[in-house]
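Hello, quick one for you while I still have it in my head. A protein chain has come my way and I'm curious about its shape. Can you walk me through what the C-alpha cells say about the fold? No rush at all, and the record is pasted right below.
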Amino acid sequence: METLRLLIVDRQLVADGLAKILQEQFSIVGQVYNASAMPGAALHRQPHIVTLEMSLSGAMAAALTLRQQSPDVRLVFVTHETDRYALTTALRIGAAGFVMKQQSSFELCHALRSVAHGRTYIAPSMRNEALLARASIRAKRGEPEGNITCRQAEVLQLVAKGKTMKEIAALLGISPKTAEFHKAGLMDGLGLRTTAELTRFAMEHGFVEPH
C-alpha cells in the first residue's frame, strides 16, 4: 500500500506538533491553520485523509464543503470535544473518524490506518455515545441538510450568528440581493419559515455552536 497522504488542519502550534509526530509513518502533504482554506488545500494537495479540529472557526462548513467536492477524501476529526453533540455532528457530516486529543499518538496512528482501510474509527471512550448518536441520525434520516450548497452553508452560518444581509454580503463579497436569494433558497429547501427556525436548524446540525 502506498504511503498515506495526510493533510492536517488545526491551530498552528498543534498542527506542527501533529506533523512531527506523524511524519515517520505518513506523508504530510500540508498543514492548514484556517478551516476555510482546507477544502481548497485538499483539492490542490490530494490527501487520502484530512484531520480537522472541529472547534476551529468555520470547521463545520469547511467539512461539508470537503465532503461535497472531494468525496473520496476521508475526514477524521482530531479534537478536544467530548460530547455527544460533537460526535453526532461529525457522524452526520460523514466523518470517517473521531479521535480525541487525550489519546496517545499510537492510537491516533491506529485510527488513521483504520480509516484508510475503509473502516470508521471512534475513540473508545465515545463508543457508547456513538450508538446513541447513530440512533439519533437514523431517527432523523431524510432531513435535507445534505443538499445544502457550499454558499448556502456560509450564509447559514452567518445568519445563525445574527448577521444582517448587508453584513453577510460584505463578508462573502456578494450583493445583499444574492445573500437574500441564498437565504430564501435555504428556507424553501428546508421547509422553514423564519430566521429563528433557520438559526435553530444551524445549531442542531453543527453549522454553529449552540448558545
Q: What stands out?
A: The domain at 144-204 is CATH 1.10.10.10 (Arc Repressor Mutant, subunit A). Strands lie at 5-9, 27-32, 49-52, 74-79, 97-100, 121-122.
